[in-house]
Amino acid sequence: MQAFRPIFLNTYHFQSEIDVLRRNLSAHLWTQELRFALCFQIVYVLVIFPYVVLTVLLVRGLTLPNSAAGLIYLLKPQWHRLQFAEVR
Question: Where are the domains of the chain?
Fold first, then answer.
């Protein structure tokens, strides 16, 4: 003898509704995957782009005339100027 089972617990009657929910969930997960892929591509470009720009600017700066003299001036300390330290 089969135990009493209420109609709302019987999934046979609601199989079409369950299938619709599964398809909607599958479509929702698919759009989430596409959103994730798109966000990944956007972040990938935004992370790499500043380094590309800085590299281009570095190459441009190094190819200017007298760039070596400017780099030496920037990187070589001028110790004799420390004697005359003033705050203006």
Answer: 11-84
